[in-house]
Each structure stands twice: as C-alpha cells, then as structure tokens.
Amino acid sequence: MNTLYDPLYLFIGGQWLTAQDRATAAVVNPATGEEIGQVPLATADDLDHALEVARLSFDQWRQTVPDQRAKILKRAADLILERAPHIAAQMTLEEGKPLRESLDEVTRAAEYFEWFAESARRIDGRVVPANRPGVLQLVKRQAIGPVAAFTPWNFPAITPARKLSAALAAGCSVVLKPGEESPSTALALARALDDAGLPKGVLQVVFGVPDQVSSHLIASPIIRKVTFTGSVPIGRLLSARAAEGVKPITLELGGHGPVLVFADADIEKAAVEGVANRFRGTGQVCISSTRFLIQREAYAEFVEHFVAATQALKIGDGMDPQTQVGPLANPRQLAKMEQLIADAVEKGARVLAGGEALPGAGFFFQPTVLADVPMSARIMHEEPFGPIAILMPFDELSDGLQEANRLPYGLSAYAFTSNARTAIDVADGLEAGMIGINQYRIVATELPFGGMKESGHGSEGGIEGIEHYLTNKFISQV
C-alpha cells in the first residue's frame, strides 16, 4: 500500500464506514501498476441505508433557506481550494494524469460549488395574471427529490462537482457512486462538504459493482432523479432503467470530436494546440478532439506541425512535474489501443507517430497519430478514449461537415478559420452540444456542458445546470 494515499471509506448518514467485513476492490496506481488502496464495496443493506437516509434528509435540506445552502457550498469551495494540492496528489496517484492537470481540475471543481452557491439564491418562480377575478396563480420551482448520481474515473473531481453542486444548491439530497478506480478524490469532496456543515445524510458516497449499484438505486421509489456521465452503452441501460420508474435522467455520454481546419486558418496554432487538447488526460477525455479534418491544401503543413508536436511530448509518471502525458487508467485501456491501431493498420492506415505501448511498469502508451485511415476501420466508428489522433483531408465545407456529423455522437466539435462567414456556417452546421471556434478550451463553469444525439441529453453547468434538479408546481388560489 502507498502511505501517501488516503484511506478509503463509504460515506453514509454522515458516517465514514471502513471495509470491515465488506468486499473490497483494489485501487491501482496506473503509473506503476502497484496497488495503493482497497475501496470498500457497499452491500445491499448499505444501499438501502443510504436511500433511507437520503429520503429523510431531503425533507430537512429542501426546507433549508437558500442563503444557508449557499453558505455551506461556498465554505466547501473554500475548503477544496485550501486542500487542492493534497486532493490533486491523490488524483494523480489513482488516475495517473499529470499533477498540474489534477490541480487545475480540483480548482475548477471548487468553482462549480461557488457558482451554484449563488444559483441557490436565484431559484425563483412567477406570478401569472389570471383570466378570472380574485384568483392568484403562482408557479413555484422546488427541489425534485433525492438524486442518484453516477460518475466515471477519468475526471474524479470535476464530474462529481458538477452534479453535487447543482443538486445540493437546488435542495436535493444525493447518493453518489463515483468510479471505483479513482475513489479518493470524490471522498475528498464529500469531506469538504461535511466539514463545511452539510447536514448529515444529505450526501452519501457509495462504491460497488456498477451494475448492481445502479439497478438497486434507480429501482428505488425514493430516487426521483438520475444523472450519469459515462459511456453510450451504459447510458442506454441506465436510461431504460430510469424510464421504468418514469424518472428524469441527465446523460453526458461519449464523443468522437471532429476538428475542421480550413486552409485560411492559423495552421500551426490549430495543430500545436490540437496536440495539447488531444493528448490531455492521455486522451481519456470525452470532449477532446479525435478526428482532425484538414482542408486539402493545408493538409501537409498541418501534418508536419502535428506530428512534430506529438513526438515532443514527454511521457511519464504524473507526479513528475515534467510529464505531459501520463499512463492510461488500466490494462483494459492498453489492450483497446493496441486493438484499434492493429485493426486500422491492417486495413491500410499509416502510423505517423507512436503506435506502441511502452515497456516496463505502468500502463503507458505512446501518443499516436494515424493517417489514411479507411472508413472500414473500427476507430472511425468507435470512440478511442485514448492517445490516438486521426488526420484526414477534406475539400469543401460541405464535405467536412458531412464527415464531422457522420457519427451518432454529438458532444463536442471544433473549427479553425479566419473567415467570419465560414465560422458562422460551420458553427451552424456542426451537430454538437459544445463547439469551439479557433480554440479548444470550451468548458467554463458559467456555460452549459452537454451533448446531443447519442452523446446524451441535458446540460450541466451554467444557468441550465440547476434546472434538472427542480420541478415546477402550479398553484391556483382563490
């Protein structure tokens, strides 16, 4: 066990529960392959306890005045910022991303608690003039009820923060199930909320076999709202389960982000910043760019800059301050990269950079650039979710848009051009929930985060983020 890694618990009813006689799952440092901790897995009784506590605490929390909810969330944000170096180190140990990326993520997680603290004070309704004398018509917005929230391992701070901050600001209680591969970060957020004065039982954090936990929680009549971030297949499954109970669900699923680079763009900027965007988080980022579509007359220049920048990246342990690309999260990710590349090469693709796993300890894979990838290759249809970039030329705007929109994904998309008319047309034509024009950084606390098509529905962040945790109540009074 790594002595730098925090002990792991379940958090139910305001109590930090150790493994005791519960089953556990190993947490592994992906940079070394060594076990650093054991996360306790909730039993059916634990889940029932979490649900009952969430039911009881909801009545108290929803009646807590918005100003008090806001103060607790802001205090939690302050505590997260104070503890950011420690939380970031925990994240890098369990997830592998470079320490500076972890620190940036923790900082942005705190920003969500600050943002939604203010949103708690702005939950309002309206008075609607009646068409009959002596009638008062009100529309109130109230917390929807206890929430079941499911988050993945790749962004273990910011993804839970988006869900927790909005749900708690609205007045909902929450049962959160983070990814078992990176549990310490979510527990650190829970500890900050607990230390900030969140009433006991308003938040539960449980771990377990994902299918068992999700089926148990979603089937419970106590749960009134479901929110999930993860893969498209699991999103479909949870959506069907939620539908059985007629429960609203917010889904933020996968993507296969296209980038349209026009010949009139700053080609070097689009390429160099594209490398940073693609290989951030070792490519395990749902909104990162994966398919780079370059107008044919600029294709050779873009390839030259992109390959050179890719080959210059430093791969290593995320705790090393020089590291730019850390390990993949687990051996499954390694195997997937090898399979996707082998399939593409067998069908005619060329490897311009990388293409292989690194020998030795840890789950390291070279940042890889593929060209001439045929449409029959799996990677042209499946989200790679790893350090692979695809480069391909296009001719006209219509051709580029056709390829960009070909897949059922619609999470993020990007375009680079110096022509204002082209920028308007491409932004209008791209089928994605989030679009960056001449930039790759499109996520901000005050803006909605979400996709369309099979990349999910509903948004988190921004003024839209709290809406999914509220329900409208119409009152007509004489």
Give the full name of the CATH homologous superfamily of the largest domain.
Answer: Aldehyde Dehydrogenase, Chain A, domain 1
Low-pLDDT regions: none
The proportion of residues in beta strands is: 15-25%
Count of the separate structural domains: 2
- Strand order, largest beta sheet: 14-15-16-13-12-17-18
At the third CATH level, what is the topology name of the largest domain?
A: Aldehyde Dehydrogenase, Chain A, domain 1
Q: Helical amount among residues, as a percent range?
A: 25-40%
The CATH first-level class of the largest domain comes to Alpha Beta
Figure out the total of helices. Answer: 13
**Count of extended strands:** 20
The quaternary structure here is single chain
Reported CATH architecture of the largest domain:
3-Layer(aba) Sandwich
Structural class label: alpha/beta
> What's the end-to-end separation, in Å?
67 Å
Rg measurement, Å: 23 Å
Family: Belongs to the aldehyde dehydrogenase family.
Protein name: NAD-dependent succinate-semialdehyde dehydrogenase
Keywords: Oxidoreductase
GO molecular function, one term: oxidoreductase activity, acting on the aldehyde or oxo group of donors, NAD or NADP as acceptor
Please, could you describe this protein's structure?
The protein is α/β, with parallel strands linked by helices. The chain has two domains: 10-253 and 454-477, Aldehyde Dehydrogenase, Chain A, domain 1 (3-Layer(aba) Sandwich); 257-445, Aldehyde Dehydrogenase, Chain A, domain 2. Helix content is 37%, strand content 20%. The strands form five sheets. A seven-stranded mixed β-sheet has the order 14-15-16-13-12-17-18, with helices on both faces. A six-stranded mixed β-sheet has the order 9-8-7-10-11-19, with helices on both faces. Helix 5 (158-170) links the parallel strand 7 and strand 8 (174-177). Helix 2 runs antiparallel to helix 4 (99-120) and helix 9 (267-279) packs across helix 10 (299-311). This is NAD-dependent succinate-semialdehyde dehydrogenase.
